[in-house]
Amino acid sequence: MSSRTSVGKSAAAPSATRPTSKIASRRQRWGYVYVAPFAAVFAVFLVLPLGYALWMSLHNKGIATAGRSVFVGADNYVKAFTDPVFLEGLWRVLRFVLVMVPVQIVVALVAALLLDTLATRLSRATRLLIFVPYAIPAVIGALMWGFLYSPRFGPAQDVFGLVGLAAPDFLSSANIFGSLVNIVTWQWVGYYMIIIYAALRSIDPSVYEAAVLDGADGRQIALRIKVPMISSSMVMIVVFALIGTLQFFTEPQVLRSSAQGAIPSDYTPNMYAFATAFNYSQFNYASTLAFSLGFLVFVGSYVFLFLTRKQSGLK
Amino acid sequence: MRTSARRRGVAAAAAVAVSAIGLTACSGGGGGGSAAEATCTNEIKQPDAAQVTVWAWYPAFESVVDNFNETHTDLQVCWTNAGQGADEYNKFQTAIEAGTGAPDVIMLEAEVLPTFTILESLVDLSEYGAGELEGDYTPGSWSDVSNGDAVYAIPVDGGPMGMLYRADIFEEYGVEVPTTWDEFATAAQDLRDAGFEGHITDFPTNGNALNYALFAQNGWEPFQYDAAKPTEVGITVDSPEAEEVLSYWKGLVDDDLVATEDAFTTDYNAALVDGTYAVYLAAAWGPGYLQGLSEADADAEWRAAPLPQWDPENPVQVNWGGSTFAVTAQSEQPEAAATVAKELFDTDEAWRLGVEEAALWPQWKPMLESDWFTGLEAPFFGGQKINEEVFLDAANGYEGFSFSPFQVYAYDQQTQALYDMVQNGTDAATALGTVQDGLVRYATEQGFTVSE
Predict the structure, then answer these.
(1) A280 to chain B: which residues are within 8 Å by CB?
(2) Which of A202, B104, B275, B419 lies most in the core, judged by the most C-beta atoms within 10 Å?
(3) CB–CB of B422/A267 below 8 Å?
(4) Which Gene Ontology terms of cellular component type are present (chain A) (predicted)?
């Protein structure tokens, strides 16, 4: 959201200051032609469905009264925000945010700082290896982990057996939280690491020289100079992780096929919306759930960006 | 040069054709009326005949479709596998909501028929002469697809239940094969005492229809629903009959005599055949399922026996699974669609394919009662005539079962409650009470008048 508005502003700025000539207005007209293909796709595949979903969320259609859609105003929203299942799902993804986001950011940051400092051939290979999981589609990744977690086929039993221990049941309700955090971290750390690494590379090396002359050691350079200088990238990846985690869906949905008890169909708000629509055929309430979640994600990201406006350079 | 250019042209045309096929396939499996444009998995034998689109996931179904298309000159089946069970139902739900995109004929399990009839998405086939077929099908299966004079689907296969067991394991540990549930519990303990390291069987908390059948064997009737009065539903999930059965299993779970692994996972499939379980409580399609699993124990000697009974004086037969063909309300050619639904599986030849290649259990009496079928010797069971000895009685004794018009939701609620029961130690009554309360609340929300 933020990047789009800032781009729009900077592009509009020069034309606003310049007196509008005939040539300029004709060029502007051509601009619309260039934008048209995107605008059409944007309208057909994003704006219209959103509008339709909003319309659906304001209506209701019970199973027993099949086919008769009634306008109910905000009733569905009142129901959603008092629905214990939805609220419990929200609380669950919030806990995922509190655990998963810091874990991902810290691992990515440490990896990026190490790779930035080391300049051996091994570091290039390592960079690639950390990034590779991101290249695997989330569904495939979750399927692979489903196999790795399997008590019978997975390697865990053998590994734990080496030191004479029994492997934990990764798919039990007690452990499923950690198992999911592990999958997501494995999948996304590489991507965040590359963003941080690119930001680190863009720092002028003369800054480090000055720091060394002032007597700073490696740890101080990393924490006092590098981290503050890449704070805007850090804010960006936290926003990515925040939005992704609030919309948590793919990994639990895939793992559900082998752990239906530990991962109920309403485990996260998105899964609840999916099941409500496609398994229980209540498309109206599902739209409400999806809209409510979207609203909360928007508010959450906005609040976060507001609180970090100094670090991200928005202010 | 010229040939290579032409070949390239052909290749390009083929690529365009392939991508065009891909596009139509993505656009929702073709509409009911646009059968001519739909892409079929099978080959159409009579290109000029009217085409009826069918969604089904039967194993080895292609040969049955080919058989139909070869024997019919005026009608052709255009078949698509739209996924198994829930996957297909999701697509159908979406098509119903969208008002377009459903096939003419759809394979549905009997348990979800009320879920779809209440959405007014299925055609009453009695208008197309389906009522006359009642005598061709087993009474239980016909009761599952009909309501008074209305017929919402044509039965195809069923799942009369029996008990498949490892004769070698019972023999090795010197334990008698149980015939009642009391004996079953004793046998579980005896096997353990004799040193058997596995479990006698698995009680999967997500074994939705299996658990329904086990409860039903004790006289459980959780739902009272009549499609003629679609806004009324009776819910009595937490009845004493169900509590008795569930407490029984809870006791076995607490003593660690049965496992509680999720059903239909890779782990479960392996455990079924590698000797971890001595018994597989199965439907008539179970033997086919077992034979399809890999990593089987090479020494396994499988045998089939009737399902254990609560009261051996008054045996009760139950059913697990089974599917039907229904005609969707979106079909623009319901009469042709009804013909396909009726005639896909109404010949000896089609059923031989169904039995031999797909291990289906016929609800169609001419096949069910044929000497060929009853006399079949199952090599997997050491030549035992399992149809005659075990499943025929179960099929004939089954009287039908009333499912709810929100069955997927009911199953999900039950899975959750049973999982809580085995994991967190709540008792059977609490688990059933949770399901009962959840379903009553849900049904009321959905506009039903609920009687408890």
Answers:
(1) 406, 408-409
(2) B104
(3) no
(4) plasma membrane
- Strand A59-60 with B50-55, pairing: unpaired
Contact yes or no for B267 and A152 at CB 8 A: yes
CB nearest to B231's CB, from A64, A172, A262: A64
Domain ranges for chain A = 25-71, 80-309
Is the same domain home to B292 and B358?
no
- Contact between chains at B447 and A64 (C-beta distance less than 8 A): yes
Q: How many domains, chain B?
A: 2
Q: Chain A contact for B444, CB < 8 A?
A: no
Largest distance between two CA atoms of chain A = 83
Give the CATH number of domain A80-309; options: 3.40.50.12780, 1.20.1740.10, 1.10.3720.10, 3.90.850.10. 1.10.3720.10
B311-348 residue pLDDT tens: 999 999 999 998 999 999 999 999 999 999 999 999 99
What ipTM, to 2 d.p.? 0.82
Sign of the CA dihedral running B421, B422, B425, B428: positive
Please tell me which of the candidates A64, A67, A281 has its beta carbon nearest to residue B93. A281
| Co-location of B54 and B138 in the same domain | yes
**CB-based contact, B120 to chain A, within 8 Å:** yes
User: Which helix H or strand E contains B305, and what residues bound it?
Assistant: strand B302-306
Mean pLDDT, rounded, for A180-191: 95
pLDDT in tens, B347-395: 999 999 999 888 899 999 999 999 999 999 988 899 999 999 999 999 9
Residue B47 reports pLDDT greater than 80: yes
pLDDT, one tens digit per residue, over B249-276 is 999 999 999 999 999 888 899 999 999 9
Q: Which of A241, A233, A239, A224 is nearest to A200 (CA)?
A: A233
| Domain region containing B75 | 50-159+321-369
Q: Span A53-59, mean pLDDT?
A: 93
Domain contains B188: yes
Q: In chain B, which residues have their Cβ closer than 8 Å to the Cβ of A157?
A: none
Contact between chains at B231 and A259 (C-beta distance less than 8 A): no
Please provide the size of chain A in residues.
Answer: 315
CA distance B230 to chain A (A): 6
Distances (CA, A) of B420 to A261, A267, B198, B432: 8, 15, 23, 11
Question: Is A20 near chain B, with CB under 8 Å?
Answer: no
Residue pLDDT, tens place only, A278-287: 988 889 999 9
Contact between residue B412 and residue B335 where contact means Cβ atoms under 8 Å apart: no
Q: Is B198 on the interface with A (CB under 8 A)?
A: no
Indicate the residue of A64, A147, A260 with minimum beta-carbon distance to B262: A260
